[in-house]
Amino acid sequence: MSDLLREEAKRPDSPWALEINAKLPKGELMSGKVTTAVLDRYIREVLPFDGRLLLLDGFPRNLEQAKDFELLNGRAQKIISLTCSENVMKERLAARGRNDDAQEIAESRYQSYLEETVPAIEYLKRGEHEVVEVSDASDLRGRTLPNADGSQVSSDQSGDEGFYEFVQAI
Predict the structure, then answer these.
(1) pLDDT in tens, 42-69
(2) Is residue 10 pLDDT above 90, yes or no?
(3) In this structure, what DSSP letter does residue 62 have?
(4) Residue 42: which region, alpha, beta or left (left: phi > 0; alpha: psi -120 to 50)?
(5) Backbone φ and ψ of 82, nearest 5°
(6) How far apart (Å, rounded) are the C-alpha atoms in residues 49 and 55?
(7) Which of 6, 12, 61, 122 has the most CB atoms within 10 Å of its CB?
């Protein structure tokens, strides 16, 4: 989702560029209004619907975004919630090496995750959504998902390489 927001901020006619450019470098969450509007524009204007599934990475981040998305686009077919400890998150962000991944920002993001994202995930679980919680490769073992061509892709492959192939197939 952050890549989509960065692209939106580059558009000269974007009404949200100022907010995006002010918040992204600090690692702050966008308002639900901005995030949902950018996503909605992308879905309607940029992404042609051809029956494939759309994977939204990093969305929703809070309850407002979850509810706004449902109002505009209907219920999500499946939600994959990727979880990890705060230490693992910090290691992964440090390895990425982006400016908005500094230690203080990482700590703030994790706190935002606990305060804002976890309640959104709980809300989605209470609805009619299928929420798949994943903390490592073993959480997806034994699952199948539809591929773009309608065939089934299995997660029952050995090792991390099989797991990554499965995730890429999503």
Answers:
(1) 888 877 666 666 778 788 889 998 888 8
(2) yes
(3) S
(4) alpha
(5) -90, 125
(6) 13
(7) 61
CA-nearest of 26, 24, 50 to 38 is: 24
- Mean pLDDT taken over the chain: 79
Q: Does residue 98 contact residue 48 with C-beta atoms inside 8 Å?
A: no
If one compares 144 and 135, the residue with the highest pLDDT of the two is 135
The residue with tokens 């994943």 is 134
Mention every residue, 6+ apart, whose C-beta is less than 8 A from residue 34: 5, 16, 19, 20
What is the chain's length? 170
Contact yes or no for 108/54 (Cβ under 8 A): no
Taking the C-alpha atoms of residue 113 and residue 90, their distance in angstroms, rounded to an integer, is 13
- Residue given tokens 């927001």 in the structure block: 5
